[in-house]
Amino acid sequence: EAQVTQNPRYLITVTGKKLTVTCSQNMNHEYMSWYRQDPGLGLRQIYYSMNVEVTDKGDVPEGYKVSRKEKRNFPLILESPSPNQTSLYFCASSPTDPSPSSYEQYFGPGTRLTVT
Amino acid sequence: AQTVTQSQPEMSVQEAETVTLSCTYDTSESNYYLFWYKQPPSRQMILVIRQEAYKQQNATENRFSVNFQKAAKSFSLKISDSQLGDTAMYFCAFMTLFNAGKSTFGDGTTLTVKP
């Protein structure tokens, strides 16, 4: 089954304790992206990657790191989480041009993160 | 920077009727993609429809269609024959080809379909 998986789905942690949220896709997509969703603010892009070893900042990259060492994986790292990073996080992937479905994003199920 | 505005935070419609969700965007680019995504109570994000800016023909997917007005920078979603399963939050999204990969979403419209 074609899918994007995220782990963990739920995480409660304390301020300053490093954590990683994993994201993996099995569709051989070039493009992957991380978003956070907060009430009333829609989805805001954190980082995105057009291919292996190519990453770029979205609108809200502060406090986050990413890496793309393999095409299928795109982990999100919070080195020193703070309460303002409490949010719902989504990973997404899509094919790029010249695919007929280029940039149609497939989303993971989301990770609910609470930082106390 | 691109912006996407959804001016209707909440809407409701009776089952089987038609509803239109509004979206406007601001960009100086000429080549881009526009999308509508649906987020039901399960929180899963699902693509509804996609429009390429260079195509003048409005996209349609079964009961879902768009009214794409490039000059007005407007991209509304029409849902015909609304069904209870259409109850969800709907997000309008923009991606420019100039900076491919950078994606901007609107704040969303919560649609409730009433029986």
Write structural notes for this entry.
The complex is a heterodimer of chains A (116) and B (115). By secondary structure, chain A is mainly β. Chain A has no helices and eleven strands. In chain A, strands 2, 4, 5, 6, 9, 10 and 11 form a seven-stranded mixed beta sheet that branches. A four-stranded antiparallel beta sheet of chain A has the order 1-3-8-7, with no helix packed on it. Chain A starts with a strand and ends with a strand. The model of chain A has no long low-confidence stretch (mean pLDDT 95). Chain B is mainly beta and 115 residues long. The chains are: A mainly beta (116), B mainly beta (115). Chains A and B meet through strand 4, strand 5, strand 9 and strand 10 of A and strand 5, strand 6, strand 10 and strand 11 of B.
Question: Tags for this entry?
Answer:
heterodimer, A: four-stranded antiparallel beta sheet, 11 strands, B: 115 residues, mainly beta, six-stranded mixed beta sheet, four-stranded antiparallel beta sheet, 0% helix
Please give the share of residues in helix of chain B. Answer: under 10%
User: What's the rounded overall pLDDT mean of chain A?
Assistant: 95
The general outline of chain A is globular
Contiguous helical run count of chain A:
0
What Rg of chain A, in angstroms, do the CA atoms define?
14 Å
* N-to-C SSE string of chain B, H for helix and E for strand: EEEEEEEEEEEE
> What is the total tally of β strands of chain A?
11
Give the structural class of chain A: mainly beta
| Major sheet size, sense and barrel closure of chain B | 6 strands, mixed
- The fraction of residues in strands of chain B falls at over 45%
Shape of chain B: globular
Q: Which stretches of chain B are low in confidence, meaning pLDDT under 50 for 5 or more residues running?
A: none
